[in-house]
Amino acid sequence: MKEFTLDDRLANDSVSVAITGLCDVRLMKDSRWPWLLLVPRRPDKSEIFELTPLDRILLTFESDKVASALKTVTGATKINVGALGNIVRQLHVHVIARFEGDANWPGPIWGYGKAEPYSDEDMNSLIAKLRETLSQ
What is the pTM of this model? Predict the structure, then answer.
């Protein structure tokens, strides 16, 4: 059986927050939006329907838990959830906190401007809050 390997672009653009039953939950390195990825740790998957029925249920459960935690931690106006994969084919689900007045509100985040990195302090603080909330 082939081992799971994280796509290089996802590895370079994000940092791991937590490992769940199915996914590697990762924070995108773009401070304009609190933006998480759920990457199912299954090799050679690019579509949700390619997962087993049990893995699809786990992905739904985990994406709901991550979305709720992100809303709790950030107080976001809206949580956007989507699986695109047009650029990075490896299956991953975006969970993005949006706020009225944020960069490009109410438009989409993709292709808008240039990523603004977190300070180490801000990134570590957000990750700690997310880990604490996810563990509840």
Answer: 0.95
